[in-house]
């Protein structure tokens, strides 16, 4: 994670940033990022994409902290809720052009470890926006999913079939989360058409 992201002050939330020259003392990010939220719905016929709501767009460290400090914490979310933090203009659906050839690293988290999930969600956000990975554009976004039978934390990447980049990114993410060798993450490819191009085990392409 960059020093700017780690040490910047954490001001109150404000409106989404406008594309103007950064003010003195502001730490701009390399890209704009968008936080999306989707929660439980009583309408079982509702289209999933219609349930995904854009919360805020930001492109500075200060706006990130302003947002993060003023939204409900992961441990306060209802079951069947997701936070999705994605590089603008990528939408958190595998059908989006930037996601079609990619996949996601997935960490399963015990339902009883909601505090650990909350910490790792923040660490994942900082890992994504901090631009410290060599092939940082490979990161599309990060997702945290609160579920009654076990939570999920995912890192979405762009190029599933580039094993070297994908595995290196998975290792870097795992290190950023402070996970030891006993904690396993697995990589799932979004598209069956991409999956069919290589002889991968069913359900996962790589594991660390």
Automatic annotation (TrEMBL):
GO terms for biological process: regulation of translation. InterPro entries: TIF_eIF4e-like, TIF_eIF_4E. It comes from the Eukaryota. One of its GO terms (molecular function) is RNA 7-methylguanosine cap binding. SUPFAM superfamilies: eIF4e-like. Keywords: Initiation factor, Protein biosynthesis, RNA-binding, Translation regulation. GO terms for cellular component: eukaryotic translation initiation factor 4F complex. Belongs to the eukaryotic initiation factor 4E family. This is Eukaryotic translation initiation factor 4E. It comes from Allomyces macrogynus (strain ATCC 38327) (Allomyces javanicus var. macrogynus). The lineage of its organism: Eukaryota, Fungi, Fungi incertae sedis, Blastocladiomycota, Blastocladiomycetes.
């Amino acid at each position: 994670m960059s020093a700017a992201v780690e040490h910047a002050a954490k001001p109150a939330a404000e409106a989404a940033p406008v594309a103007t020259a950064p003010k003195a003392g502001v730490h701009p990010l390399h890209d704009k990022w968008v936080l999306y939220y989707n929660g439980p719905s009583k309408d079982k016929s509702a289209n999933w994409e219609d349930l995904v709501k854009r919360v805020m767009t930001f492109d500075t460290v200060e706006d990130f902290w302003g947002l993060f400090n003023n939204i409900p914490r992961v441990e306060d979310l209802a079951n069947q809720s997701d936070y999705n933090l994605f590089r603008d203009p990528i939408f958190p659906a595998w059908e989006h052009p930037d996601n079609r050839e990619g996949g996601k690293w997935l960490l399963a988290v015990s339902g009883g470890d909601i505090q650990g999930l909350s910490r790792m969600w923040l660490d994942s956000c900082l890992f994504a926006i901090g631009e410290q990975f060599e092939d940082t554009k490979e990161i599309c976004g990060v997702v945290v999913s609160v579920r009654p039978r076990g939570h999920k934390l995912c890192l979405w990447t762009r190029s599933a079939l580039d094993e070297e980049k994908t595995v290196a990114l998975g290792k870097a993410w795992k290190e950023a989360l402070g996970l030891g060798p006993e904690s396993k993450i697995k990589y799932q490819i979004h598209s069956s058409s991409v999956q069919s191009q290589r002889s991968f085990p069913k359900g996962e392409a790589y594991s660390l």
